[in-house]
Amino acid sequence: xxxxxxxxxxxxxxxxxxxxxxxxxxxxxxxxxxxxxxxxxxxxxxxxxxxxxxxxxxxxxxxxxxxxxxxxxxxxxxxxxxxxxxxxxxxxxxxxxxxxxxxxxxxxxxxxxxxxxxxxxxxxxxxxxxxxxxxxxxxxxxxxxxxxxxxxxxxxxxxxxxxxxxxxxxxxxxxxxxxxxxxxxxxxxxxxxxxxxxxxxxxxxxxxxxxxxxxxxxxxxxxxxxxxxxxxxxxx
Length: 236
Known about the structure:
Elements: H1 5-8, E1 13-23, E2 29-35, E3 43-44, E4 47-49, H2 56-68, E5 74-81, E6 92-100, E7 116-123, E8 133-137, E9 140-141, H3 148-162, H4 179-190, H5 196-206, E10 209-216, E11 224-229
Parallel strand pairs: 1-6
Antiparallel strand pairs: 1-2, 1-4, 2-3, 2-7, 5-6, 7-8, 8-9, 10-11
């Protein structure tokens, strides 16, 4: 059958999807997911259609604010996803981004909202780089809509790959933090334990952090020195 002119010239619907990466209070890697109200069912990344005369970058900033009440978050473009059939609503092409956000910048009501969750994410043991991820909430595993399992897996792989040559983990830190806090962020991203002394030497020699001249008091352990992030040209 010969394609009609309208079929040949049919344009896709552009969207953005955002992987909001954080370090959960329990120390594990987490992302923000939103429960869909319309078909297809399941949990999805914060996202939306790009408006006419709006750039994908502007759409990302708008979606971050509307869906997660976040502004001025560090974002980076991940990849474009446009496989036929990825969205049952039609030909939808998504420009996916990831955002690295300190936990204390998330909305305070996130834990009480029924349509949003701070999900734990994992990659299956032995899965290929960038393979699909799984997500779980307080009640168990979550069903991910569209191809968001693939998008999340690709984002985790990208973030892990940049961890040692760009200050990725530092983007997850509050304004002041201890080196143990930073180690926990590295371990959350990697999904495994790392040697404390080796990381400490590497971080202090990198020039990426600077002491603030105070210690964190009120802990049962010895007061820990506080650091702040130094901005560099290697920001992710």
